[in-house]
């Protein structure tokens, strides 16, 4: 069998198996060495094919698709630095547990380390950030090698999905000629009997361990359940059931899927504002904490754990030790929803007055946060989105200040909105591309992003020129890195602050909108902002809404809110001295 026949059948069987194993979306960045893969995916004619000329953007776009679909997404690129540009997205996918299958084309072995063009060392290029790496064999079409190709396609899919999701990497060396022959008979292996090699069962903690937990908690009175970011469809309901059975407050991170459950009296969404005060953190004496999901966005929650010796129970799917408090903890490994349901069966009761106190604290903080103001602030920009965004929508949130403002100002509501963010590595790169990936199914996504993050990932907007993607972008333009205004770097009199941290760029964003043919509105008043949001949800394509704010005024406004919340909180804690 000649080279072209071997290449065609080898790659054809691999691609066919990916489809049979559940893959539906392929994100391709153009290149010559990856021709066998790219052409074969297109020829198969069953996949959703997305082409992104920028590999860094493509990696995050695939991350967004995987977040939305909960399925493994394939990335395809050529050899050389093309593969290196995936790295930021792979790091994010690793920490966020996103299933990606990275297929990098490579030079054959005889062209490595000899100065051939576009030939870099791609072996384990992503290090420990992928769950599995494999250097694929050179294409052959013997029965064993065709089965080998299928086995590794199937293994890649299932390794990316189970037990903890994450990226995998297969490196494909190809010799020229690179063009497959799609006229060959049997190139897809239609008569092959497919064998799936992986089965995954939900896991629970053992009965002896449950008995130990029962004994450890039976004399305790004041507990807190924390639910951080996660992607388990059944975890929110299980956590609510546990909190209801135990009568404990739930600190609900904005990425926990718990903030659209307004009627639940155990949900405390204003914990971040309540705990910003060190005085408050010193006065709330929790006996134990049970945490589901990743660590919450809130820094005050982390400070509460670091400053106090609170017994922690951390529930996770695998042995990963996600515990930045550096305090000791009990780790319970299993499917989080299953473990929550198991814990709910324990015969435990806690001080109901503790829950009632947290309800009072939460209501008090909410009242301060929803007070109307005369200026359009960054916090009120969040409230505006929550007011106007349609039910059953998706909000994607950028890092730095936007996600923190959502944590503070997105209050529990009856409106069901899926809030998403890249909180694995918490970087500002790839935000636009990830949001567009979440819009790949045709629905409109709302993106809340700062000006520096927007500029950092603006290349992702090229996708909107080629695909019908619908996005409402709320761009907070405070002329620089607004989060640094809250940090010690902004200390008055710092000679280098603006140059190193403020970093104003002074670009006209209406020109960006014109470049990509976006609808554009620049607003600095509340009524105009709401009108722009409402208009964006009535149309297709991309709408860019620029919200102009002032960094110094924004800091003052936030701190005034926090001071008022602290005052009311201290009064409630004084009234509940016997409870706390």
TrEMBL record:
Residues 218-397 form the Menaquinone biosynthesis protein MenD middle domain. Pfam families: TPP_enzyme_C, TPP_enzyme_M_2, TPP_enzyme_N. Its EC number is 2.2.1.9. Keywords: Magnesium, Manganese, Menaquinone biosynthesis, Metal-binding, Thiamine pyrophosphate, Transferase. GO terms for molecular function: 2-succinyl-5-enolpyruvyl-6-hydroxy-3-cyclohexene-1-carboxylic-acid synthase activity; magnesium ion binding; manganese ion binding; thiamine pyrophosphate binding. Its cofactor is Mg(2+); Mn(2+); thiamine diphosphate. Homodimer. This is 2-succinyl-5-enolpyruvyl-6-hydroxy-3-cyclohexene-1-carboxylate synthase.
